[in-house]
Amino acid sequence: MPPPWYRPRNVLVVVFTAVAIAIAAFVVMVMPVYRGEPTIAVDYGRRIEELIVSDPDIDAPAARARFERLDALLVDYEQLYEAVTAELMQASDEHDARPLECERIIFAVDVPDDIDAERRFLARLATSSILADLDAVIAGGPAVRDFSGPDGVHAIFMQELGRARLLAFALAAHMRLSAEAGDYDAAARSFERILGLASAIEQPILISMLVADSIRSLVLSEVAPELIEHTYPEAAARRMLDAMDRFAPRATRIGIEGERLALHDIIQRTFTDDGAGDGHALLDRFAEFLGDWSMTGSEPPRGFAGAALSRFYLASRRETVDVIDSMYEALQVRLAMPLAQRAGLPVQPFGPAALSNRFSLVTGLLPTLQGAADQRDAAASTFAGVRIMVALELHHARHGTWPATLDALVPGILPSLPLDPITAGPFGYRLLANDPDGRPYLLYSLGADGVDDGGRDIDEPSPPNVVTADLVISTVREDRGW
Predict the structure, then answer these.
(1) Is the link from the previous residue into 3 a cis peptide, with omega within 30 of 0?
(2) I need a labelling partner for 266 at 20 to 30 A (CA). Which of 131, 229, 250, 469 fits?
(3) C-alpha distances in angstroms, 463 versus 429, 435, 469?
(4) 469 close to 453: Cβ distance less than 8 angstroms
(5) Looking at residue 198, what is its pLDDT?
(6) In whole angstroms, what is the distance from residue 471 CA to residue 474 CA?
(7) Is residue 142 located within the same domain as residue 218?
């Protein structure tokens, strides 16, 4: 006869008791993931805005009002553009119909002949209130977007960025046509407006900064050959140089900090809060954010098993925040180095390779910031180089000659010579005689390798076993594929 404890009834009692205890423990540990709710304790949107308006000399309400006016004029411009495009399409023959294309004026080597529609549109734009409103916005000081909202920073759809690019094309087209007509004052005014527009939309979020850089790149790639093709008078060159001083690009570190704050906002909306700075991931909330957030790389686990995974396997709120802060701080240290110095360092791992799988949700949200930062340094180098070109134009307008060295620009025109953001050193410069492209001088960056190749561009044939090249600033006009 089996011992008492081995009797079937007793075995079943023991088994069911053990299962009940296990289920109870599992529920006690896992259910808080379901029951917990995030606590929205910090307005990170306002903190992002403060990256611009923290200066006591800046009137924050006035800065927000300027952005609202900017947003309104960009909507007005979009409506004007769409109305004129619709009129053009309706008035055209079915086989000859084409949309309004200010880009054709910018991207072609020679100004196209069939741009009557674009000329009429630019004249109509000049008589609207849009440009006067833009002048008022850029003359008033910084413009600051409202990043606060009940759904968080991630829910803000920055529609003004696309509209600003659309307006920049029209202003750049007007700039080229004005220069071709010899109206250099009007060309300089359009140049100033484009840089002011880029500065106004440049907020402390990287996507905003990159779009602002693309607008600057549009006008800088236009003005560099313009300065080779035309001789700008002193007043126009002075206005352009002043515009570059007023509307210089914001530091990348501000955008990186804005990204960190935006990620903190996501964390406070997707983790529980135990009141002591810790908590667990709410995977359903994460799924909502991962569905909207463009920088994601993976789909989070769902359901009851997902909740168990969150509780027992995934990193906690405190661990997640610590990792985010340490990674962003490491990036800021890296960004303090010039691009040429960073290029010689191992690539900093920002993503799944840098962390264990416990941080898989975080690595899905971390953007590829390093590549964006490198891109901004290249854009800043072009900006600084074109600033020197404008200063050279001003020197030529005053003295009738090109200086033998850039030192002649200081202190009469520039307080000091701009350093190349890529190398943290001087730009290369030399006078040219009988240049086949008609350039009086060659201005160039030494590039990411920091080696002076005498201004040999990456597209030029190189000597045997030579793989380095410089980035030429004083470029001539090329067909950009329109």
Answers:
(1) no
(2) 250
(3) 21, 20, 11
(4) yes
(5) 98
(6) 9
(7) yes
Residue 303 lies in a domain: no
Separation of alpha carbons 357 and 467, rounded Å: 39
Ranges in the chain, pLDDT < 50: 30, 33-35, 292-298, 300, 304, 351-352, 461-467, 481-482
Q: Are 164 and 201 in contact (CB under 8 A)?
A: yes
pLDDT of residue 222: 93
Indicate whether 115 and 17 sit together in one domain: no
Residue 270 domain-assigned (yes or no): no
List the structure tokens of 455.
């201004």
135-to-75, 211, 260, 424 alpha-carbon distances in Å:
16, 20, 33, 34
DSSP string, 101-159: -THHHHHSSS--S--HHHHHHHHHHHHSSHHHHHHHHHHH---------TT-GGG---T
CA 364 to the chain's CA centroid = 20
Domain count of the fold of the chain: 3
Q: Which two tokens stand for residue 477?
A: 């006009």
DSSP 8-state secondary structure symbol assigned to residue 405: S
Print the domain residue range for 462. Answer: 381-472
Close Cβ partners of 48 (under 8 Å, ≥ 6 residues apart): 147, 153, 203, 204, 205, 258, 261, 262
